[in-house]
Amino acid sequence: MYALARSLLFRLDPETAHGVSLRALDLTHRLHLQGLLDAGAPLDDPCELMGLRFANRVGLAAGLDKNAEHLDALGALGFGFVEVGTVTPRPQPGNPRPRLFRLPEQQAIINRMGFNNAGVDQLVANVRKSRYAGVIGINIGKNLATPVDRAVGDYLLCLERVHACAHYITVNISSPNTPGLRDLQRGEHLDGLLGPLRERCTQLDEQAGRRVPLTVKIAPDMEDAAIRLVGEALARNAIDAVIATNTTLVRDAVAGLPHAGEQGGLSGRPLFAASNRVVATLRRHLPDMPIIGVGGIASGQDALAKREVGADLIQLYSGFVYRGPALVGECRRALRRTA
Length: 339
Description:
Elements: H1 2-9, H2 14-30, E1 47-49, E2 52-54, E3 58-60, H3 71-75, E4 81-87, E5 100-103, E6 108-111, H4 120-129, E7 135-140, H5 151-162, E8 168-172, H6 187-208, E9 214-218, H7 224-236, E10 241-244, E11 265-268, H8 272-285, E12 291-294, H9 300-308, E13 313-316, H10 318-323, H11 326-336
Parallel strand pairs: 3-4, 3-13, 4-7, 7-8, 8-9, 9-10, 10-12, 12-13
Antiparallel strand pairs: 1-2, 5-6, 6-11
Helix pairs in contact: 5-6, 6-7, 7-8, 9-11
């Protein structure tokens, strides 16, 4: 059924198709018709990481549901966890359209969305209204207008607003679509951000009587030495997990294809090897830190490969767009054999 739906959706502008798809999922959920979406039968494959119990190891990456408006419908597809956002303190429209491009020959997507979202207060309200009972991650960022040297204030504000309704919080310092954001991955910038966030999160944990893990999402476009330095900073600041990786700026695998020259981050199949390299490098330097692997997963075999290089959990995004809910069940079944 999804193949037919995709053939129709891919005739639309990608961003329009994105909105139509999510509204259709909401309707399907309300009508209790999820069985038509080929997500597969429920699978009991729990695991515990970061003090959280995940129903299975397959999650949805941030970016698909920026404002947590579709948590119930997405959660019903069998994900073990759903990450929403990226959210910023104030609403912002993001970059001008068009800003989302398909490269179907490589099952890839280029986006330069620019953290378009309705603001942290709206996201929190949406999470509170949701009935989704699984693990919810909330991905936080800074507003475009906030200078990088004052970014910590934006992250702290988001952290404080989402702490009460998040199961874990992700610090996004790796989107290529907010100028200067990736500078926060380097040297003193990284410690200067993570130190205050770790301190404030610990304070909020103590006040609430519950622990909310803090994770960091990093970019794939780093040499091994830089990855090692990032890993050391994560450990030094007692970060609970790392998400590897965000989108890439490298275009080698899609050179010559339509839209390959568009600015923005590339996701999908061309990201697979680069993401795996980062996961493997992190695992060597951080043998005990949970790693969430994301990037280029388009089959159960890809999910297994991500696990074999060191990922404890995986997340889907572009593969989910191209393959639909069937990919969720396929990855769950593949990973169950590794438990």
